[in-house]
Design brief:
Number of helices: 15
Strand content: under 5%
Distance between the termini: 26 Å
Radius of gyration: 28 Å
Largest sheet: 4 strands, mixed
Strand order of the largest sheet: 2-1-3-4
Length: about 375
């Protein structure tokens, strides 16, 4: 009971220190509100309002229908070009796509003769170029098949493609980027907040005040974890309910309380990691240099920025030691697919286990650091 009482009062002390730090509180507020919104609506990888030109040698009814199918919001109104002006326009970056329809295109389609439609792409915008090729190809094929339907030729096709998108049927980028940005902010701020708290105590000399008090190193460390983790957890709850679900309109399929429970375990793991890094660094600049590579690895290889399945198998096994990998799977399962405890409990157990390992290492380092301070 004495241990818990000491942790409670030390947590109150840490909470007051965090709330009085206006710079840090401002960073937390902006990171979980403005930053999530700006990244969600600003950083888009899908095809939206892109420029496209058409070289129509055929001037047939089919070519006109293909032109009419290239509509907003994906494409701007197609602009007629000539072969002479098309290359210069592409070199100047005025068009992302140029579609060239050959002569006798409609006649060749009806005559079942081979024909070719050329699509020139400015692939410097890699994501939009890749998706745009798929969209334009689908539009050309669908309009061509409509010609087959007129002649009854569609029934001769050996197969038909029918696509059903289970989640996010309109493939809206903000539904994904907002949640992934939230995960990134949790990762960065959790480590920075508790690490800065430890180094601030050491730089200001207040760590000596704690050493003369009848408290254990474990009580000091756990109090920092509880106080800083609570602040981040409240910010996450506000971000999910007010920004992601409220302002951005992202449908949250699963239980928000279950997600916050998993986030609490993740915060426990990250704050323990923050204390561990703070015991290694001797100053705030050193802590920043040490933490940046950790952030990059945890973010880039967690599955939030790139598909986890695309990584080499040895790297997938290695990243099982990172709590961010399990937290991304947990978050996507709960918020996107309405997963319950019966599905995400392995990820929650893994995050908690990694957090305990981080805490054990952090306490060992923290005790030796306090012994040197004393």
């Amino acid at each position: 009971m004495i241990w818990f009482i000491n942790v409670f009062y030390l947590s109150l002390k840490e909470l007051r220190c965090v709330l009085r730090d206006r710079t840090m509180m401002g960073a937390i507020l902006i990171s979980f509100t403005v930053a999530v919104y700006v990244v969600a609506v600003g950083a888009k990888a899908d095809v939206t309002n892109v420029t496209i030109g058409i070289i129509d040698h055929d001037q047939s009814g089919l070519s006109q229908r293909i032109r009419a199918a290239l509509q907003m919001p994906m494409f701007q109104t197609p602009v007629d070009l000539t072969p002479e002006t098309a290359q210069a326009a592409m070199d100047e970056g005025r068009y992302l796509f140029i579609l060239e329809i050959p002569r006798q295109f409609e006649a060749d389609i009806h005559g079942q003769r081979p024909t070719t439609v050329q699509l020139t792409v400015d692939a410097t915008a890699m994501a939009q170029a890749q998706l745009g090729i798929a969209y334009i190809t689908e539009i050309v094929l669908s309009e061509t098949l409509s010609e087959f339907k007129v002649d009854g030729l569609d029934k001769r096709m050996p197969m038909r493609q029918v696509i059903h998108v289970l989640y996010n049927p309109n493939t809206i980028t903000s539904w994904f980027t907002s949640v992934m940005q939230l995960i990134n902010n949790v990762t960065v701020l959790s480590v920075v907040l508790v690490g800065a708290a430890v180094i601030r105590e050491r730089e200001r000399g207040t760590i000596e005040h704690l050493l003369v008090m009848p408290v254990r190193p474990s009580e000091i460390a756990v109090a920092k974890i509880v106080a800083n983790g609570l602040v981040i957890l409240l910010a996450v709850a506000v971000s999910v309910l007010a920004i992601i679900e409220g302002v951005l309109g992202v449908p949250v399929e699963g239980s928000v309380m279950l997600f916050l429970l998993g986030t609490g375990l993740y915060l426990f793991s990250l704050t323990a990691l923050g204390i561990l890094l703070a015991t290694v660094a001797s100053s705030m600049p050193q802590f920043g240099l040490l933490a940046v590579p950790v952030f990059v690895v945890m973010y880039m290889l967690s599955g939030s920025a790139t598909p986890f399945e695309n990584m080499p198998m040895w790297l997938q096994h290695l990243m099982q030691l990172s709590p961010s990998t399990h937290y991304v799977q947990l978050t996507q399962g709960i918020l996107y697919r309405a997963a319950g405890v019966d599905i995400v409990w392995p990820q929650m157990l893994a995050v908690g286990g990694i957090g305990i390992a981080f805490l054990a290492l952090a306490l060992m380092r923290f005790r030796s650091m306090l012994a040197r301070q004393g």
